[in-house]
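Deliverable D4.2, example record:
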Amino acid sequence: MKLSDAKPGDTVRVRKIEGSGPTMRRIMDMGITKGCSLHVRKYAPLGDPIEITVRGYELSLRKADAATILVEK
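Output generated by the structure prediction step:
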C-alpha cells in the first residue's frame, strides 16, 4: 500500500521509498526512512497535501511524494 492510500487516523510503517535522486533524498532528509512509523493526521480539504506525524513532529507532504512511499499497517 502507498502512503497516499492511507486514511486519516492510520498508523503505518515504511517498507520502501521508491524513486531515486533528489526526491528520494529529500524524503529521507525529512526523517522518513525504512522501518519508521508514520501517523496520518489529516488531508487538506482538496486532498493535497497530507499531514503526517513522523518522529514526533508534524509534516505536510504532497500527494505525489506520498505515492512514492510504500507502507504497511
